[in-house]
């Protein structure tokens, strides 16, 4: 499935949008619609996805302008869309006209590009204008909907005079088989970010068995598929953009690695002396010979225990004959499995997509039994034919997909002897320190968050079981669970990106972005003037209100922390500062450097003489 997106934004620029339908907002309906459209494009600017395409439709009762450029979104294009929208709205008149918002939708559907894209259409209107179906060919609209998988989202501003328009679109949505959605504008903008469907590719299609070896025979085996784990969506980094003050252009920071060798190097000369290349004469560049990307390969480190095959025949002879599969070798209590042994990125195992019902029942029964016994399976996993053998642990998980439940195994590679170079791992046995374990367990339980509803054996991820992309995150998925808190999320980065988007939107009405951000008291005027809370409004910026975060009394945590330090025998010792010994002043040969020179000579007497 293609991951590229083709998004069309339709805004109502008629004079009927001069009303204020949202009581909590001071702006008019047109200003809210324009801000939504521009912020959508500004987010795309920060993402900097070159493959995505955006189209813009400006509707008035007398015309519908379609704007599209077959290129990535740039700041100049966003500014062009903004200026045309404002100009069109200012020149619009109160009239019924020959066009309706349906004409703008038909125009957007008729201009679908033929490439493979995920297609979305957003319509923002208050629904006060009239409906004119004379120029609309509904058969053509339906054919376009059937030819392209287009998802249309109508964002209706809640106005008391749009009842007829809303009922019309609700009846129209039924005929488009679930590909036409109607949302309240205020509710839609208050929800979380969209959920993008990314179809994972199956890594391995094999069998899960209890046998040792490759022969299955009459032993128990289950058909399974292995998929890569769902990764957290990376954040947008607004700080990776710079502006050239001469050309006034905004560009993204580019990083490029260049490799070079010494131009006068000899095969005998194996010692690289960096001191020769850090001088200030500039001769180092003359002795560098840069290597093209196609001419080098990545090296490796080797030890006495590793064998490097120099010939393909030797490598083939030294490679074990293996076939894809997962073989269960034993089971272990989850409490006796140290977390430090889990390495690499995990993958998950589910029953085969085309397997029979008996196969799925057998797999689910195995996972359910492991959950009830609180055990994990130690397995031998081979991903591809003639591939390396990995020793992994399979952790059972119940997967929550809406109102339905499923079962799966999370596959983690276990650290082996060759992994000791990256860390020291505990042994698979009890330490014998019962007091220490119980104290640590009490400390962890006491730090449990109030809103933590996480279950160790249950996986709740909004992207699991996602069959199609959603324009927003539902309220249930937006709750701050512990799983979401532990994701790589930086509040400072989010706040920075928020301010960057705010600067970009407010700069669209200015002549130059550089001159706009260079104004006196820019932060106070444009960033914090309309904010409810800033850093200066807080009572105490060092008080994080941690007593409101945890389930138990936070003061008792200090007592448990002291007991934990005592059990670990952790003591803080002030490091004694060594006294500096005075050097002997008796020189043997010649003069000796002495910092206390004036201690032995009268400087004034020497200067006077």
Automatic annotation (TrEMBL):
GO CC annotations on file: chromosome, telomeric region; Ku70:Ku80 complex
All residue ranges annotated as the Ku domain in the record: 288-431
InterPro entries with a match to the protein in the record: DNA_bd_Ku70/Ku80, SPOC-like_C_dom_sf, vWFA_dom_sf
Pfam families the UniProt entry points to: Ku (PF02735)
Enzyme Commission number(s): 3.6.4.12
Subcellular location: Chromosome, Telomere; Nucleus
Keyword Transcription: no
Keyword Cell membrane in record: no
Source organism superkingdom: Eukaryota
UniProt-recorded Gene Ontology molecular function terms: ATP binding; DNA helicase activity; double-stranded DNA binding; hydrolase activity; telomeric DNA binding
Keywords: ATP-binding, Chromosome, DNA damage, DNA recombination, DNA repair, DNA-binding, Helicase, Hydrolase, Nucleotide-binding, Nucleus, Telomere
Protein's recorded name: DNA helicase
Organism of this sequence: Candida orthopsilosis (strain 90-125) (Yeast)
């Amino acid at each position: 499935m293609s991951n590229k997106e083709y998004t069309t934004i339709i805004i109502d620029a008629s004079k009927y949008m001069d009303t204020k339908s949202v009581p909590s907002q001071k702006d008019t309906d047109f200003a809210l619609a324009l801000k939504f459209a521009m912020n959508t494009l500004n987010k795309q600017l920060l993402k900097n996805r070159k493959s995505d395409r955006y189209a813009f439709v400006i509707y008035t009762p007398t015309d519908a302008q379609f704007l599209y450029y077959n290129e990535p979104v740039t700041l100049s294009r966003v500014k062009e869309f903004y200026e045309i929208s404002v100009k069109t709205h200012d020149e619009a008149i109160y009239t019924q006209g020959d066009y309706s918002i349906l004409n703008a939708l038909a125009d957007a559907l008729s201009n679908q590009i033929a490439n493979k894209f995920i297609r979305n259409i957003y319509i923002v209107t208050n629904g006060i204008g009239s409906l004119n179906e004379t120029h609309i060919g509904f058969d053509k609209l339906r054919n376009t909907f059937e030819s392209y998988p287009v998802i249309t989202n109508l964002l209706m501003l809640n106005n008391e005079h749009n009842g007829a328009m809303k009922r019309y679109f609700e009846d129209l949505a039924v005929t488009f088989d679930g590909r036409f959605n109607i949302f309240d504008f205020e509710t839609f903008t208050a929800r979380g970010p969209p959920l993008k469907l990314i179809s994972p590719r199956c890594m391995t299609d094999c069998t899960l068995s209890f046998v040792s070896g490759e022969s299955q025979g009459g032993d128990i085996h289950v058909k399974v598929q292995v998929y890569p784990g769902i990764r957290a969506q990376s954040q947008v980094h607004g700080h990776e953009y710079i502006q050239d003050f001469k050309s006034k252009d905004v560009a993204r920071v580019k990083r490029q690695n260049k490799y070079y060798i010494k131009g006068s190097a000899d095969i005998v000369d194996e010692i690289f002396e960096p001191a020769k290349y850090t001088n200030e004469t500039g001769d180092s560049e003359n002795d560098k010979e840069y290597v093209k990307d196609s001419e080098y390969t990545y090296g490796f480190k080797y030890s006495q225990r590793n064998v490097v095959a120099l010939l393909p025949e030797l490598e083939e002879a030294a490679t074990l004959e293996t076939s894809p599969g997962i073989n269960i070798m034993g089971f272990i209590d989850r409490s006796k499995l140290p977390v430090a042994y889990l390495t690499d990125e995990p993958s998950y195992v589910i029953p085969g997509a085309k397997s029979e019902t008996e196969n799925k029942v057998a797999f689910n029964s195995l996972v359910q039994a492991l959950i009830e016994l609180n055990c994990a399976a130690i397995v031998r996993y081979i991903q591809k034919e003639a591939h390396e053998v990995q020793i992994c642990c399979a952790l059972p998980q119940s997967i929550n997909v809406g109102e339905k439940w499923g079962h799966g195994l999370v596959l983690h590679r276990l650290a082996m002897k060759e992994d000791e170079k990256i860390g020291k791992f505990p042994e698979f046995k009890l330490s014998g320190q019962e007091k220490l374990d119980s104290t640590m367990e009490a400390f962890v339980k006491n730090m449990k968050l109030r809103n933590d509803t996480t279950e160790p054996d249950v996986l709740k991820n909004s992207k699991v079981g996602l069959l199609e992309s959603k324009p927003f995150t539902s309220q249930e998925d937006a709750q701050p669970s512990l799983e979401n808190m532990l994701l790589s999320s930086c509040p400072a980065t989010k706040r920075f990106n928020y301010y960057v988007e705010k600067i970009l939107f407010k700069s669209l009405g200015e002549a130059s972005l550089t001159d706009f951000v260079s104004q006196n008291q820019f932060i106070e005027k444009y960033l914090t003037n309309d904010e409810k809370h800033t850093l200066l409004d807080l009572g105490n910026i060092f008080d994080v209100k941690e007593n409101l975060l945890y389930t138990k009394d936070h003061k008792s945590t200090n007592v448990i922390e002291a007991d934990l330090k005592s059990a670990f025998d952790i003591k803080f010792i002030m490091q004694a500062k060594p006294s500096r010994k005075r050097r002997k002043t008796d020189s043997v040969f010649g003069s000796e450097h002495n910092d206390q020179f004036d201690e032995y000579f009268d400087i004034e007497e020497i200067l006077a003489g």
